[in-house]
Amino acid sequence: MGVILVTGSTGQVGRELLRMLAPLGTVVAPTRAEMDLADAASVRERIRLLKPRWIVNPAAYTAVDKAESEPELAYAINAEAVRAIGEEAKTIGAAVIHFSTDYVFRGTGDTPFVETDVTEPVSVYGASKLAGEHLLAGTGAAHCIFRTSWVYGGHGKNFLLTILKAARERERLRVVADQHGAPTWSRDLARMTARVIERVGASASGQKLRETQSEWSGVYHAAGAGETTWYGFASEAIRIERDRNPIVKLAEVDPITTAEYPTPAKRPANSRLNCEKLEAKFGWRMMDWRESLREVMAEL
After folding, report:
1. How confident is the prediction for the chain on average, in pLDDT?
2. What is the pTM of this model?
3. Distance, CA of 36 to CA of 99 (rounded, Å)
4. Number of domains forming the structure of the chain
């Protein structure tokens, strides 16, 4: 399969990708010193040096609230670096897998968004990620853009680990109950990515990836199956933890509205994503969020 370049290898998804992609090729994970996504020239230099067959880009500026006061940095990492990746990939005939977000939508309504729905981000973070999608597609490189939501896992910084820590330290927790979506396990995303690379590689059968891109390039939704709220996610996690450790005192969880928990950046009320296109094209069904939560917590 050749060289697979993975960005953000210390992040939640990147960490899982290193393991899942190892059987498929020579996985190379540059450090920030070797490939700084805030510096497009650094990105170009590393890709030219490695000449990968695949570039997998889970790295992003994800500080949603901080992005409101740091738009230049958010756009540098989430948009300009992605453009550089796409342009260099096209030059060498590589393919790109890039991860995006439900934040590209306005987040209204109560039905899952499909890939063709109108995008209308309401935050700098969402706008920067949407810009990255457009810039990548505009390069003409072979690519898959996977929009996901509420990513978590057993490592790194995420909602699950934050809630479990807080539940051990406090008597009550207040968690937003009017934002709807589905938690997505970082390992499920990594497994899905491996499946896509395998499928595309098999269909290319010796051809250059760009020669088959019309068959698979595009935007796909890839989020956990089912739906819940942040309150529902927190409540289920604490319930599981209580069952595992009945002698440990854990906080009670109270539902609140988004209005009761103001943040600098606006959050979408509807983060539901319809993932039928992913299953139809690559035969991959994302895990139900309850199932993945049980597996993650069994490993903690």
Report:
1. 97
2. 0.97
3. 17
4. 1
CA–CA gap between residue 84 and residue 78 (Å, rounded) = 11
Q: Which of 13, 11, 3, 16 is nearest to 47 (CA)?
A: 3
125 three-class SS: helix
- Distant-in-sequence, close-in-space partners of 49: CB < 8 Å, separation ≥ 6: none
How do residues 125-152 score in pLDDT, each as one tens digit?
Answer: 999 999 999 999 999 999 999 999 999 9
Residues of the domain holding 215: 3-157+184-225+270-289
**Host H or E run for residue 215:** none
The two three-digit tokens of residue 87, written as one number? 């342009």
Question: How many CB atoms are closer than 10 A to CB 49?
Answer: 12
Residue 5, classed as helix, strand or coil, is strand
What is the Rg, in whole angstroms, of the alpha carbon atoms belonging to the chain? 19
| Set 75, 103, 125, 231: catalytic member | 125
* CB half-sphere exposure, 167, CA atoms < 13 A: 25
**What DSSP letter does each residue of 174-211 carry, written as one string?**
EEE-S-EE--EEHHHHHHHHHHHHHHHHHHHTTS-GGG
Q: How far is CA 87 from CA 14, 47, 143, 158, 270, in A?
A: 22, 10, 11, 32, 33
User: What average pLDDT does range 219-245 have in this prediction?
Assistant: 97
Active site (annotated) includes residue 125 = yes
How long a stretch of residues is the chain?
Answer: 300
Is residue 235 in a domain? Answer: no
Evaluate whether residue 230 is within a structural domain: no
User: Hey, what amino acid is at 102?
Assistant: D
Strand 95-101, strand 142-148: pairing: parallel
The pairing of strands 172-176 and 180-181 is unpaired
Q: What is the CATH number of the domain that holds 214?
A: 3.40.50.720
Residue 164 lies in a domain: no
What does the CA dihedral 256, 261, 262, 268 come to, rounded to 10 degrees? -60
Residue 178 resides in a domain? no
